[in-house]
Amino acid sequence: MTDIFREVDEDLRHERYKRLWDRFGTYVIVAAILIVVGTAGWRLFEYWREHEAQATGDRFIAALDLATAGDHQAASAALTAIMADGSGQYPMLATFRVASEKATAGDRDGAVADFDAIAKSSAPALVRDLARLRAALLLVDTASVADLTARVGDLAATGNPWRHSAREILGLAAWRTGDLAGARKYYDEIAEDQEKPADLQSRAQFMLGLIRARLGDPEPAPAPEAGGGS
Prior knowledge:
Oligomer: single chain
Strand content: under 5%
């Protein structure tokens, strides 16, 4: 008797599956095909994107070679083309390089405008901040301390990854305009920062020596040696 009930139950289950398949089987097949085709299409798109980025990378290197060889006009033209139709991150790199080429050619205003455009774009924050620094560095000999502070003053804050460069730019501007107290403040911050690069330490100490000489301050006494006795 139990076997009969089991057979009836299996028949009913099979009949239910058959009705479900008759009703939805076509949709299941179509969905499976779409998944396979979609996956293959995505893989194809990734391959195409990687291939295009590699090709753009070759073009970018070729443009840099032109710049190194001194053909800045051809280099700028090649980089501008990459900005228009390049793949991956190369258009952004090309934008930076075009601005740098303008600065090299003496077109400071054009370079600053390009860097300002990058700083206001949707690029990652780290890239935008670097563009702000590049523009400020081009203006360090002419812009007011207030203008440069408005541009990069927040980057000089403790903990900011660009603080060393921002402090040096602001210190140079303060020195140029005769604000010795302001210059000393920024160079002291550089000198006291334990994470500063070695070359920046040398420049900071040099500038602090100039500032002390201008102010008539004596040289600071050397720190006592650890463990020294009488």
